[in-house]
Amino acid sequence: MILNYKFKNFMSFKENVEFSMVAPKTKVKKRFPDNFITTNVGVDVLKTAVVVGENAGGKSNFIRSLSYFQSFFLKTESTKAYNNFINTNNNQDFCPKKSNTLQSFEIEIFVKENIMYLYHLEVDFVGIVKEELYFKKLEKNKYKKIFSVARNQCQIECKNKDECINQKCYTEVKVAYIFDIPGFEKEIERVLENAANKEKALGLTVTKLAMLGNEHGIAFTDWVKNVLCPETNIINYDIYKSMKNEVDDLRILHDSRYLDIFRMIDYSIIDLKVDEEKPFSKTMVIRKKKDGGTFSRDLVHDSSGVREFFAWAVQIFKVVYENKIVFADEMDRVLNPVLSDRVISFINGKNHFGQFIFTTHNVLHLDLKNYMKEQIYFVTKDIETLESELYSLADFPEIRYETTKIYEFYMKGILGGTAIE
Known about the structure:
CATH superfamily of the largest domain: P-loop containing nucleotide triphosphate hydrolases
Mean pLDDT: 86
Number of strands: 18
Shape: globular
CATH architecture of the largest domain: 3-Layer(aba) Sandwich
Protein name: AAA15 family ATPase/GTPase
Number of helices: 11
Domain ATPase AAA-type core: 49-364
Pfam families: AAA_21
Radius of gyration: 23 Å
Strand content: 25-35%
Number of domains: 2
CATH class of the largest domain: Alpha Beta
Organism: Catenibacillus scindens
InterPro entries: ATPase_AAA_core (IPR003959), P-loop_NTPase (IPR027417)
Helix content: 25-40%
């Protein structure tokens, strides 16, 4: 489960962004016993969170930052910052030497094996600047270092003699790294250090340790690659899922518990006939009629809301029954408020170690009867700098739980996150 996540200099976000899923230590959480899970490491973690904000404010970029971070673990080539993902105010020149390309990511997680991990990564256009991984078994303990990698030398020479050709910059780079891996064999540490200092391209050390059999490297890498599920809404989600055509999705569709989730959108649905080749378009949805009979319809001929929820229900299944961490971009854009509340109540009502964080334009989610203040986040964009900012409703001490109609504060621009500010 995610405890804390920070990043800096990514797309519309320039300054440090902080996002937390740690439940408050105050008595207020007693009002919401289903909204968090108590872990064996001594920290209570929130199951759900909602991110509200204006169009083009940065909500999708927030989720994309996690996809970008995850991509470093999924590829084997060098890890570095790319111009297209740098904040525009830091990337004012096509020559990377004249821009601020330094990005940082930090994530603190809890895994089922009763261990907390803290991972920090800094990259620029050359490659990795710093990488660190720590662990501890209790929240009250201090973190112990698993490894650290720091770049202590970086020489950049312009092959074009400071004159870029066709707005392209060609550089030669020489780098040197220092490794610190306590408890690891010094010979392996020297091999890693020598390999890093011989070539510019450097992948993540944590993935290398995982391949060498280090238990912490394996656990953390597996979590990032297989448990973290950031889903940005580039196209209709049912079409997106159909294009990915993942084997795990087909397995879930055949699970009877999936039908219970999918039926939230229409309780006349009583069964599914899953199409093995095109499950997100050709699956047959079977409904019960008023007279007791049944009728069937291909998913592709059903409503857009039903089609999209058919796909999103797979992700909800992963949260509740597979302890996945799902970030959903505008899942409820085609869902009515009642169904959205039903989904959140379902996730909160189950005992699991998954998390569901979603972005929305639905102001009815600004409700302190269903959410703690720590579960509601806003994204707003400065109209002059075009830089995004993420912050929690908990940052507003004047907002009390007895205050009704929080969405009215939001619509008036008092809480930010609206285009009128």
